[in-house]
Design goal:
The protein is an alpha/beta fold. It contains seven helices and seven strands; from the N terminus they run H-E-H-E-H-E-E-E-H-E-H-E-H-H. Strands 2-1-5-6-7 form a five-stranded parallel sheet, with helices on both faces. Strand 5, helix 4 and strand 6 form a beta-alpha-beta unit. The protein is rod-shaped and about 110 Å long. It starts with a helix and ends in a 7-residue tail after the last helix. About 7% of the residues have low confidence.
């Protein structure tokens, strides 16, 4: 049961070192997680469905959504020190994205720098692991992914309830509209009947006026 449940979680591992990348991949797979590895922050953004846009204003978000991305990622674990885009930069971009901000992010580093650790945690990182990452560290990942799963499930239930409520309100509106239509039909029928009776009365009066002038031979 545990293996089947854990295999539903997908982890994106980001590290420019092939040795560290292979190590974290093996640890995650031994824990029955699905794993995708990339060697840079920019490739991680691309996999997540975000791409850097160098032509936009620097005051605006530096990533934009890619509607073609359909792969669900349940957690990102990234090295801190990488050329180009650091793990801290990747963390900030993910947390600024409205579509990805709820994905848990874990930072790894071979340097134990308290100010660096505090900065990452303040920016939204769930954990900060010192390299080499151990199996005991990997065991800390599941609660963060479970928390996100529960949140997603709750949000999905709320959406279903809202749709159900809207359907009920639409049904009640239709029920109210039916008697109104029937009442209008009855009113139209009464008007037609009144007009027919008026026509018959006029015809009878005409016949009465004509009767004295009739001769019978």
């Amino acid at each position: 049961m545990g293996v089947a449940a854990d295999s539903q979680f997908h982890v994106l591992a980001v590290d420019d070192s092939i040795i560290d990348r292979k190590l974290i991949e093996r640890l995650l797979k031994n824990s029955s997680y699905q794993v995708t590895t990339v060697d840079s922050g920019s490739k991680a953004l691309e996999f997540l469905g975000l791409h850097e846009d160098n032509e936009i204003n620097s005051n605006q978000p530096s990533v934009s959504p890619n509607i073609n991305q359909e792969v669900e990622v349940n957690l990102i674990i990234t090295d801190y020190c990488m050329p180009g885009m650091t793990g801290y930069d990747l963390l900030k971009k993910v947390k600024k994205s409205s579509s990805l901000k709820d994905i848990p992010v874990v930072i790894m580093s071979s340097e134990n720098v308290p100010s660096r650790i505090s900065r990452c945690l303040e920016e939204g990182a769930e954990e900060f692991f010192l390299k080499p990452v151990r199996l005991s560290d990997v065991s800390k990942l599941k609660p963060h992914m479970m928390k996100t799963k529960i949140k997603d499930t709750h949000l999905h239930q709320q959406q279903l309830q809202e749709h159900h409520k809207q359907d009920q309100e639409h049904g009640e509106l239709n029920v109210l509209e039916i008697p109104e239509a029937e009442s209008q039909q009855q009113s139209n029928g009464s008007k037609r009947k009144s007009m027919e009776e008026e026509t018959i009365t006029k015809q009878n009066k005409t016949q009465i006026q004509w009767w004295p002038y009739c001769r019978f031979d």
